[in-house]
Automatic annotation (TrEMBL):
It comes from Nonomuraea gerenzanensis. It comes from the Bacteria. This is Phage protein. InterPro entries: Metallo-depent_PP-like (IPR029052).
Length: 168
């Protein structure tokens, strides 16, 4: 699991308001969710899934664009490899190609959406934001990576590989 800024909030809270408890690992995310029992590894920063692709939460040093897909694309252009990331709460795939004389390379920026209930996000002005509900899927076969953005519709349905899920 990629660690994000929301995952850091309990630690920051303890450090500020209960420093005696902050020394304990009992409040670390991997302990609270028992990652060891489920063979889950907590990854901080970036994780290269292939030579040409990395995944990250996205809160570490990238400027946020108001255009879906641009934050990840800008990150890809900055680091020189394709990027899948969260943090923006947007669902989009962006691609840019570079080169000359037929020697072209393409970088992909993939923002993987969010699973929030916006009705409970009282901190949002007007109860909404330029966020797209959904999630990302990466099909990986060797060095080949195929990103898919899966939107979740108003009726809470979504489709993956031709199968419809969710709804009431």
């Amino acid at each position: 699991m990629i660690e994000g800024n929301h995952d850091l909030r309990p630690r920051a809270y303890l450090a500020k308001y209960a420093p005696a408890l902050a020394e304990s690992r009992d409040f670390d995310l991997d302990q609270l969710l028992d990652f060891q029992a489920y063979d889950v590894t907590l990854i901080k920063g970036f994780y290269d899934i292939t030579q040409d692709w990395t995944i990250t939460h996205g809160h570490l040093g990238f400027s946020i664009s108001h255009i879906a897909g641009r934050t990840a694309q800008n990150a890809a252009n900055k680091i020189g490899k394709s990027v899948a990331m969260g943090h923006t709460h947007r669902l989009a795939i962006s691609r840019e190609s570079f080169g000359y004389q037929g020697k072209i390379s393409t970088l992909t920026g993939f923002e993987v959406g969010h699973l929030c209930d916006l009705k409970k996000a009282h901190y949002l002005k007007n109860g909404g934001a330029n966020w797209q509900q959904g999630f990302g899927v990466l099909d990986i076969d060797g060095s080949y990576v195929h990103p898919q953005g899966i939107p979740i519709h108003k009726d809470k349905t979504f489709s993956v590989d031709g199968f419809k899920y969710g709804g009431k």
